[in-house]
UniProtKB/TrEMBL annotation:
SUPFAM superfamilies: Ribonuclease H-like (SSF53098). This is HAT C-terminal dimerisation domain-containing protein. It comes from Rhizophagus irregularis. It comes from the Eukaryota. GO terms for molecular function: protein dimerization activity.
Length: 332
C-alpha cells in the first residue's frame, strides 16, 4: 500500500507545465473522497508528524473539508475553458495563427461574463447547499477569482504587440472574409501584413478573386491544404498566406528548438556546418507528426546535408531519421 513514505506517482498527463496545475486540481477533485481515510491512517502510523497532524485535522473537520471540496469543484469546472485554450495554442503541425484572434475574443467574453455573475450553475449551487453553506458567500469569492484573472489578462493580452497581427491574419481564413461585412474585404486595413501595405496590381487582382469566392466555403477547412490548392489560381496570395498561417503562436516552438539543438550538437558532433545543422534540425523537427505537404521541405533538408552523409559519423542518424518519415525508398 502506498503512503507518505512509500509514494506513488500520480498518473497525470502533463502535456505542458502551463495547464498541469489545472489538471492536478481536477485529479484532486475526483479523489478527495479518499483523502480523509488515507491521511488518518498515515497519521495513526506517525502521531508525531506535524504536517500529517495538520492535514488530518483539516480533513476530519466537516466545515473545512467542505470548503476544500467546493473550491476544488469550482476550479475544476471553470478551468476547463482555460485548459482547452492553452491546449489549442500549443498545437503542433497545424496552421492555427489565423484562428488565434477569435480564440482570444471568446476567452475574453468568458472571463468578463463571470466577473459580475450571480449564477455559477446548478451543480455547484446544489453542492454548496448540500454541504450546508450559503451559495452567495462563495459567489463573491468566485467573482473575485474571475476579476483577478481578468486583470491579469487585460494587462497583457489586449495591448500585446502581436495582437494587431493576430487580427489581420484572420483574412487568411476564407470563412472570416465571407462571414462578415464588406469592410473585411478591404485589403488596406490589413497593412500590418507588410505585403498588403503597398500591394501590387497583380496582388490586388488575386485579392479580388479571393474575395469573390463566396460559394466555396462550407464545413471545415484545412488552411494549409486550401492555400496549396490555390497556388495555381492565386500564386502570390497563396505564397503570402502559407508564410503567415504557419507563424508560431508562442515561444514554445523556440524553446523546443533549443532542446532539439542540444540533441544535435552533442559532444561528438561539434564540427557541423551551419547548413548541415539547419538541415538536420528540419529533419529532426519533422520526423514526428509531419504533414504530407511538408515532404518537399524535408527532401530539401536531405539535399542540404547530402555532403555530410558521406562522413561515417553522420550516416546512422540521417538514415535513421529519413527512414522514420518514409522518405527513402527501398532502392535508396
Amino acid at each position: 500500500m502506498h503512503g507518505i513514505f512509500s509514494p506513488c506517482k500520480i498518473p497525470l498527463y502533463n502535456k505542458t507545465h502551463w495547464n498541469s496545475w489545472f489538471r492536478m486540481v481536477i485529479y484532486a477533485k475526483e479523489h478527495i473522497i479518499y483523502w480523509p481515510s488515507f491521511f488518518k491512517e498515515e497519521f495513526d502510523n506517525d502521531k508525531k508528524h506535524v504536517i500529517l497532524m495538520a492535514i488530518n485535522s483539516c480533513l476530519q473537520n466537516e466545515k473545512e473539508s467542505g470548503i476544500i471540496t467546493i473550491y476544488l469543484n469550482f476550479i475544476s469546472f471553470y478551468a476547463k475553458e482555460f485548459i482547452q485554450d492553452l491546449d489549442f495554442f500549443q498545437q503542433l503541425n497545424k496552421p492555427i495563427f489565423p484562428l488565434i484572434e477569435l480564440q482570444l475574443q471568446q476567452l475574453t467574453s468568458y472571463i468578463e461574463m463571470y466577473r459580475n455573475s450571480n449564477d455559477f450553475g446548478p451543480s455547484l449551487e446544489n453542492l454548496i447547499i448540500q454541504l450546508r453553506f450559503n451559495p452567495n458567500d462563495f459567489y463573491a469569492i468566485f467573482r473575485l477569482a474571475f476579476e483577478t484573472a481578468y486583470s491579469k489578462f487585460s494587462a497583457h493580452i489586449p495591448n500585446h504587440p502581436t495582437r494587431p497581427l493576430f487580427h489581420a491574419c484572420q483574412v487568411f481564413d476564407p470563412r472570416y472574409i465571407h462571414a462578415g461585412d464588406l469592410l473585411r474585404k478591404n485589403i488596406r486595413q490589413y497593412n500590418i501584413i507588410k505585403e498588403f501595405a503597398n500591394p501590387s496590381d497583380e496582388l490586388l487582382r488575386e485579392w479580388g478573386i479571393y474575395c469573390g469566392l463566396d460559394n466555396e466555403f462550407l464545413g471545415e477547412i484545412e488552411l494549409d491544404q486550401y492555400w496549396l490548392n490555390k497556388a495555381t489560381q492565386l500564386p502570390i496570395l497563396s505564397n503570402i498566406a502559407l508564410d503567415y498561417i504557419w507563424l508560431p503562436i508562442s515561444s514554445c516552438t523556440v524553446e523546443r528548438s533549443f532542446s532539439m539543438y542540444n540533441s544535435l550538437l552533442d559532444n561528438d558532433r561539434q564540427s557541423l556546418s551551419k547548413d548541415s545543422l539547419k538541415g538536420l534540425s528540419m529533419l529532426f523537427g519533422f520526423q514526428v507528426g509531419f504533414q504530407s505537404t511538408e515532404i518537399p521541405k524535408i527532401r530539401l533538408a536531405i539535399q542540404i546535408i547530402s555532403e555530410e552523409w558521406k562522413k561515417p559519423s553522420f550516416i546512422s542518424l540521417e538514415l535513421g531519421l529519413a527512414s522514420q518519415v518514409g522518405l527513402l525508398s527501398s532502392e535508396e
